[in-house]
Amino acid sequence: MNILEQIRKELPWLEDKVSYDLTRGKPSSDQLDISQQYLEKINQPYHIDGVDIRNYGLPEGLPSAKALGADIMGTSAEETLALDNSSLSLMQQILSCGYFLGFDKAKLDQNSKFICPVPGYDRHFKLLENFGFEMISIPFADDGPDLQALAQVLEQEANVAGIVCVPRHSNPTGHSYSDANVSEMFNLISQKKDNFMILWDNAYACHDLKPTIKQSSANEIAKNCGVWDNLFHLSSTSKITLAGSGIAFLSMSSSNINQFIDYRNSVTPGPNKMNQGLHVEYFKTISIEEQMNKLKEVILPKFELTEQYLSELQQEGLCEYKSPTGGYFFTFDSTSGKAKEIIDHCDQLGLKLLPLGSCHPNGKDSANRTIRIAPTFPDLQSLERCMQIFSKVVKYLN
Amino acid sequence: MNILEQIRKELPWLEDKVSYDLTRGKPSSDQLDISQQYLEKINQPYHIDGVDIRNYGLPEGLPSAKALGADIMGTSAEETLALDNSSLSLMQQILSCGYFLGFDKAKLDQNSKFICPVPGYDRHFKLLENFGFEMISIPFADDGPDLQALAQVLEQEANVAGIVCVPRHSNPTGHSYSDANVSEMFNLISQKKDNFMILWDNAYACHDLKPTIKQSSANEIAKNCGVWDNLFHLSSTSKITLAGSGIAFLSMSSSNINQFIDYRNSVTPGPNKMNQGLHVEYFKTISIEEQMNKLKEVILPKFELTEQYLSELQQEGLCEYKSPTGGYFFTFDSTSGKAKEIIDHCDQLGLKLLPLGSCHPNGKDSANRTIRIAPTFPDLQSLERCMQIFSKVVKYLN
């Protein structure tokens, strides 16, 4: 009997033809129900902050939405823009502005190379790849990107012009960078401060599920290290309120803000301020902290369940993983280098995982090790089944 | 007494220090009140078309929002995407995809040149300029772009790879292209169909104020002329429901759709479907036609008032203008080539107009002729004052 037949025999519910999916970091409907419950209690405002939000104007976003972003990111409202519904789109616009016009301290061209801590976020890598930028992988240390590796790349490679980071509950490894790590990183980067773009995707700024280290504001550290004009600090409410219908924020120096807003005037007549107003009203009804606590009640049991299975596999020597204290993901590293085989077998049993290489630049995971697990979308019972399939496949393949 | 003193004496209300603004094509609050009135009657849906619109997914947009876009643009829903809140942002993404990846039949590079019928839309020109594309102006004929001029450019210039058009109630001239014009244009372009991008910004697709020629679907004409894979047909509800909080639509061939959605996956996790759902509900309450009729009641008197003044100036030989049958703009052409002087004098009297050259590529109106007048935002009384200032300045300067 082959492995698939064996597992099908052991898990007779696989006959149900239900599909199981651990690919994307999507909120579950239980999470979205929480937001809907509060949204239903509020009325859409049409004027706010003395502004007619039904009309064009205010390219930097509503003042009270800027303040909301500043709250989430630990920045000041003056240094924070409240814009459209996707921080990834803002990243595309930042890169475009850097490429075609150049920021004062971040000018990109076809030879620019970006440093990418890996494993990382597939859409970041695809975005950089689509600009034609070469990506140079560096590994992680315990408290953030491996800075020896970073120093070496900065020293040895020509045309290194940027780095992309998820500094808290990193996608997908769960790393939260220590202040010491960030300070040293920014100090290293300061050698290149005449031309360097730090894409700082703070997507999980307030998404703790367990006690997590405190982090100083990246803006303040950047100012202290002399790289404030190099920092492009992003976040959003996508995984706070509703996914795809939130507000994306961007915090940076005032000269970068001026240039970016000027560039944006040729790209959009401005953000959706109706949605910004709705969010401002929303967080008058429930604080960000209360909202995140409610979401934690839904997500934490899924993380605990996932970890039970991974911890068992780790004890058997079949994987390495880092226990995340928040965010949306686990990273499974196959110690025997069988990630592709695991993904393929799971697929044949009806469990979808991202393809091999999704967490690596250009889709290349040459060690055949890394699988991202996104446990938030399925309900607990489905997640248990997903992890049963996954765990059995890993065990049988080893 | 100089001109300014003379006008201040004749218009004593200029002392009021009220500012007058005819720069941007913004809806008035009266228009927005119409939309608000209907929005207040409907409830935000959370599920629609069998989709949980609170979550990520459906990168091509909600089926019923695609149908709404198809209705507005005269296209089919299968060939139409419902996306974010700005068709200009979509244009930036189309150009980026064409530049960095290339569509099958529209591959751009740093040497690509775009044909621009002038006068045209300042944000289009700035967008193209920011990519570094050279722009080649062609004039208008009565029923659309001057096709002799177009033919000449296509024949004589190397690397011509695109054109940008506003085919109905063109911004700012008000031209509505005849079917004959579009067919001949597309036939001319078909010589270059292996590499050509037609940016077709149908922003005023249903914004008639007076009887306007019927237009066949540009998609159908493109198919007949063999340039279907070259057409990127855009529209939005920005000037139908709320400005800045609408839905932008994009209609094109299925191979372009596939490639663009794939590209968009690195740029955004998808459009704001909550807003799409809201719009779908909105147009169950009032039809697009009824909505546009209500808006017309507000806008048409402003157009008639503006035209009174322009018609008088024209009769005195001081300007040329084309009477628009819809859209948002008038184009004033100074017969004596004094556009800059008019703009400057108006500015000193408190009336803001766009700077000279705004309707021309790279801001260059070498004939010093063109001023765009956007009469929708002020109320009727303010608009009358704007036109009094404008008219007196024109007369005294001639």
Describe the structure in brief.
Chain A has helices at residues 3-10, 29-39, 63-73, 87-100, 122-130, 147-156, 179-189, 218-225, 254-264, 273-285, 288-315, 339-348, 380-397; strands spanning 20-21, 47-48, 51-52, 80-82, 113-117, 134-138, 140-141, 144-145, 160-165, 197-201, 231-236, 248-251, 319-320, 330-334, 351-352, 370-373.
List the helices and strands and how they pair.
The structure is a homodimer of 398-residue chains.
Chain A: H1 3-10, E1 20-21, H2 29-39, E2 47-48, E3 51-52, H3 63-73, E4 80-82, H4 87-100, E5 113-117, H5 122-130, E6 134-138, E7 140-141, E8 144-145, H6 147-156, E9 160-165, H7 179-189, E10 197-201, H8 218-225, E11 231-236, E12 248-251, H9 254-264, H10 273-285, H11 288-315, E13 319-320, E14 330-334, H12 339-348, E15 351-352, E16 370-373, H13 380-397
Parallel strand pairs in A: 1-15, 5-6, 5-9, 9-10, 10-11
Antiparallel strand pairs in A: 2-3, 4-12, 7-8, 11-12, 13-14, 14-16
